[in-house]
Structures are given as structure tokens and as C-alpha cells.
Amino acid sequence: MPPKAISDVERQALRAYYFSQKPQPKQKDIIAWFEQQYGRKLGQATTVSLTRLRITINILIMRLPPAL
């Protein structure tokens, strides 16, 4: 049986956790945190999408003009 999709609330909490950690956590850390918080496993596809989001944000930040 495929894993149950995460809710919007869980997704928001996951993103908040991910971006509040310095350095950003690895996939295994994200999966462990989610399981501890919500009592179920998080699929690897969800952690991969977070990694892609981080990469996209970093690319966009690099393209910003320098602050005055």
C-alpha cells in the first residue's frame, strides 16, 4: 500500500523545520523528525522535493542584485 500523502499542515511544519535548521538537515534526519512528530514514515519523494526547493531558493538568492 502506498504511503498516505502528507497534509498541508504537515507540509508547512516540515518546511518550517527544514528551513529553521542550520545547517539544513539531511534526508534521514527529516524522515526521523517527521516520524517523531506525526508517528508515521515520510516517503523519500517528499524529502527529495524539499531538497529541490532548497536548491531553487539558493539559485534565486544568488541571482538577486547586491543589497545597497
From TrEMBL:
InterPro entries reported in the protein's UniProt record:
Homeodomain-like_sf (IPR009057), HTH_ABP1_N (IPR041188)
Q: Where is the ARS-binding protein 1 N-terminal domain?
A: 4-46
The identity of this protein, by name, is ARS-binding protein 1 N-terminal domain-containing protein
Q: What is the lineage of its organism?
A: Eukaryota, Fungi, Dikarya, Ascomycota, Pezizomycotina
